Structure formats: C-alpha cells, structure tokens
Amino acid sequence: MNPISKYVKLIEWGWNESWQASFDALAASSFVNKRLEPARVTAPLSQLYQIVAEDGERYAEVSGKFEYEASSRGDFPAAGDWVAAELLEGERRAVIHAVLPRRSAMIRKSAGNTMDEQIIGANLDYVFIVNSLNQDWNPRRLERYLIAVRESGSLPVVLLTKSDLCDDPAAFIAEAEQIASGVPVFAVSAMQERGREQLEPYLEPGRTVAAVGSSGVGKSTLLNWLAGDDLQAVQRIREDDARGRHTTTHRELFLLPGGAIWLDTPGMRELQLWDSQGGWQMTFADIEALASQCKFGDCRHESESGCAVRAAIEEGELEATRYANYRKTERELARLARKEQSAAARHKKHGGARDKEYGRKPKHRSGTADLED
C-alpha cells in the first residue's frame, strides 16, 4: 500500500511521496516515541497556528522543546510549512514538534533594528509579484521583489493588475519584461474577466502559489476572482494617491476550485531584503555583465576611463535609476552582512547567550505583526 494513499485531504494541499519520505525520515530519527501526523500550516496567528491535517482543520501551538531550541524567528512554522504534529484526541487542537525541511522560502528582514528574518511563505512553487497599472506603479519596487523571490527558490511571475484602468498596458508589460528578464509577465483585469487563461498553467492541482505586493494592488481581488467566491474582503483604494488600505491581516492558504493552493499575504509598504546576494545578482545580471566589460577590474563605475556601465547610461542603454537601485541594494546587502557577522561574533563571544541588542530567546508573534509595515 502506498503510504500517502491514506492522506486524501493532505494530497489536496500538496502532500506527495517526496514529503512523505521527508516526514518518515524525521519521525524515525527524532520522534520514535511520538505519535505524529503530517499537517500543513495554513495561517500563522497570534500565539497559535491554523493547520490542516487529514482529519480537518485544527489550531496548534509549538511544543515547549521546539520553542526552547528555536534560535530565530525564522525557525518557527510559517504559512505553507509542512509540520509533524501531535493531534490531541477529543480536541481540535494539536502540538507542533517539528517543521519539515523547506523546499523554498521567501524571506524578508523583520521590521525595526532587530537582526532577524521573517518567512513570508514556505514551500512555494510560484510567487506572483503583483503590481497595479495605476499611479502606484513602481519599477524599483518590482526589482526588490524579484531579488527576494529569486533568492527564495520559487519561480517568479509578474502580474500587472487593473489593466482596465490603463490606456496602454503594452508599454507597462514591455517595461516589466525588460526589468524581469526571462520572467513571465501578464496583464490581467478581474473586473473585465481578462487574463485568467494565462494563469492556468501556474495553477495546477497541488501547486502552491503566493501573491505578494503592496496594499491596494489587488491581491485579494485576484484570489476572489480565481476562486469564484468572496474568500477575502476587499477595500477601495484611496483615490488621491492610489494607495491601498489594509484588507488581508495575516498570511493564509486557500484551496482554489482547480486544485491549486493560493497564499494570500498582507501588503508590504517596504520589503527589507535578507541574505539575497544570489537574487540580487540574477535581478541585475545585465549590469553585472556590463561591469565585466569595464577596462579595469576594480572599476567603481564613477569617473574611470573605459567604464562600460557609465557608457551604457550615457548612451541610454541603461536607466540611471535602475543603476542607482543596483548600487543601493548592493550597499544594503553589504550592511546586512556586516551586521550578521557582528551578531554571530557576539553570540560566539558570549558562549551562545543572546545580548540585549539582538533580543531574548524568540517568542513567536504573528497575527497583527503581519500587517503592512
């Protein structure tokens, strides 16, 4: 008998033989005396987690041992994670003892000065980077999202929403395609029922897709449109600046009628990058290629002779604003790396104890912390 055949409901949520093998290995190596079942985190809430197990939805908390051994916020379960859970008999509660190794994870730096990571979503096949075709269109923001998604291990797709409000969607598509080289770009309109067929190849049964972007770009509207139901409330954007108001308050997985799993996320005013060197290089591969053509290997692309980057800017082949964002994110990642090294050195110096600057042992907090920040 195939061991996954008993997990009919979980298969709907993406469970497969690969996850089964990962679960079996974890249970055999660390939890021989525990009666555990696989489950998927559908929503991290304040202090608790909403999970789906084979017998349906439950609310769960992490075990005391799990919380004690966690070294950072990123160690705690996130939306999309598969977990090993103890299902409490006679109750709709569960205890999470472990998180199965993630296949992908979109991460950002937590808000504030704390050096910690926040998992936006885990085990995602595709991430739809959602931008609206109104005055909130921001090419530089698109670049930041591309960096984070490419670093995550998921495949990015750019969705340009509200195409019905735009006189020339083709111009925005061309600009997005130039920024996101090699990434699919689609313009859609939920109001006019336009573009759904372009998304169908990414929404196959068992696949997990996330929608990320700032408030007001239409993520919840997309979900309702694709689901054919009002799963999430939506609000009108502010007319004076095209900025959205809070609709989604936490990350949550939804099962679409066609069988795909959709992660709806709160809007983010700013995406602070986290350990994204590889994603940065992929997103700015054109500038990296130009830099390799400079006359001098240590060219700073300022006033040196034979600088291919400055020449491309002067000849209009490279946007000055794109190059400025390239340098800005380069400096940002360098500062982050220095802070991480400093934190690691302090951690080692104090024998593993956490100093005051970087906080105490992590206590999981989510819920309202997921709001746009």
Q: What attributes characterize this protein structure?
A:
disordered C terminus; globular; OB fold (Dihydrolipoamide Acetyltransferase, E2P); 20% strand; Ribonucleotide Reductase Protein R1, domain 1; six-stranded mixed β-sheet; alpha/beta; five-stranded mixed barrel; 13 strands; 373 residues; Rossmann fold; 3 domains
Give a written overview of the molecule:
This protein is α/β, with parallel strands linked by helices. The chain has 3 domains: 3-99, Nucleic acid-binding proteins (OB fold (Dihydrolipoamide Acetyltransferase, E2P)), CATH 2.40.50.140; 105-264, P-loop containing nucleotide triphosphate hydrolases (Rossmann fold); 277-358, Ribonucleotide Reductase Protein R1, domain 1, CATH 1.10.40. The chain is built from 11 helices and 13 strands. Helix 4 (139-152) packs across helix 11 (320-349). It is globular, with a radius of gyration of 22 Å. Mean pLDDT is 85; it is low at 237-242, 353-362 and 364-373. Keywords: Cytoplasm, GTP-binding, Hydrolase, Metal-binding, Nucleotide-binding, Ribosome biogenesis, RNA-binding, rRNA-binding, Zinc.
Give, in order, the helices and strands: HHEEEHEEEEEHEHEHEHEEHHHH
CATH first level of the largest domain: Alpha Beta
Main sheet specs: 6 strands, mixed
**Spans of at least 5 consecutive residues with low confidence:** 237-242, 353-362, 364-373
Shape: globular
Q: What number of domains?
A: 3
- If you average the pLDDT, what whole number results? 85
Strand order of the largest sheet: 10-9-8-11-13-12
Name of the CATH superfamily of the largest domain: P-loop containing nucleotide triphosphate hydrolases
Radius of gyration: 22 Å
Report the end-to-end length measured between terminal Cα atoms: 49 Å
Helical fraction: 25-40%
CATH topology of the largest domain: Rossmann fold
Report the structural category. Answer: alpha/beta
